[in-house]
Design brief:
Keywords: Hydrolase. This is Helicase C-terminal domain-containing protein. InterPro entries: ATP-helicase/E3_Ub-Ligase, Helicase_C-like, P-loop_NTPase, SNF2/RAD54-like_C. GO terms for molecular function: hydrolase activity. It is a single chain. It contains 5 helices and 6 strands, in the order H-E-H-E-H-E-E-H-E-H-E. It has helices at about 1-5, 20-30, 40-55, 95-105, 130-150, and strands at about 10-15, 35, 65, 80-85, 120, 155-160. The protein has a 6-stranded parallel β-sheet. It is globular. The two termini are about 20 Å apart.
Amino acid sequence: ELEAKEPDAKVILFVQWEDLKKKVAGALTEFGVEHTVLQGGVWARQQAIERFQCGKAGEGGKLMLLSLQDSASGTNLTAASHVVLFHPVVASSHEAAVACEMQAIGRALRAGQERTVKIWRFVVVGTAEQKVTEEHQKDLWARFRLEKATRGAKEPSDSSPR
């Protein structure tokens, strides 16, 4: 559906764990979803980032799959107009989880980003995960509003169902 509405859209899909990243990559491959995975040594990672930032259809440049567990912090992925958080981040505290999610979203919301960035989440309604996601999201928007007020940062678009 996204490809039909926004053929040039680029998506960053975040998962927390390497094992889950492998399973998601397998599912994307099985269903023919073109993607690139940020993994390997410095050279392989740099090539994956360049494919994503500059690549076209057929070059793996539409969707980048990243693991929050091992992806280099500070990576600039401003080609993305969509960020997908596959699940709520699990961390030692609520604050640490929200900070990790904010850092993930921040990969696309960098200086030079000219697009509106939409944030998506997969949530199973009526579960504990839904409550955790809602709490994370509430704190994320509060932090983005504070950052916007103090630094002029662009606020992402909330694409989560209400």
